[in-house]
Specification:
Strand content: under 5%
Number of domains: 1
Structural class: mainly alpha
Number of strands: 0
Distance between the termini: 63 Å
Number of helices: 11
Largest sheet: none
Order of helices and strands: HHHHHHHHHHH
Helix content: 55-70%
Amino acid sequence: MNALTPSSWLVALVVLAAYLWGGVPSSYLVVRLKKGVDLRKTGSGNVGATNVMMHLGFKTGLLVGAFEAIGKATIPILLVRLFGLSLSVQVAVALAAIAGHNWSPYLKFTGGRGIATMAGAIIGLLAWSDFIVMLFFAILIGRIITKQFALWTTVALILMAPVSLLIRAPSEIIWFNIGAFGIIAAKRFTANWERPAKGVPLYKVFWYRFLYDRDIADHTQWITRGITNTYRPSTR
């Protein structure tokens, strides 16, 4: 194997640093310190801002989400750009930050789902077509109109690369879209290494995970569950 050049070593170190910084489990730490609760074992099981809101309220969840977006992704990308590194390196930093958040090395490679961190990366990369797609589908339709945020986020993720291609965005942005989709889909399928919910066919579990980011059809039942992941279908 050929030795890495100094510039390659620099890029590798920058990307590794982005992964380790993205992996800082801010949501987990805030809830653990304030309530003594492990987010991975309650609610949605997601180590992210939405689950924080369930335990500590909207304001705290919003602040944590802002850090996971701006602190973990936007600012590192801007720093990389400030030091003159290329768009491809910025994209690598963005994807590493999302992966770090999703599979934190500080939580035995468990973590969040990466949506807030991806949003911060979109801002940092100035990927405005992605921003518009996410705003329209995930926020307007998903959050405000239908209350199906996870489903419409999936739609937005699927559409980002084709839209970027259509408007002739830089190829690096298209690869970012493909990479972000792959990372977030992989995390939804694997969750936090949880066993699939009992009482639900396996194919349905993975279908629900991909579309709705949960194992069952009932959203309320899923996000209010306790430490167990067992789901018992209603007999009514």
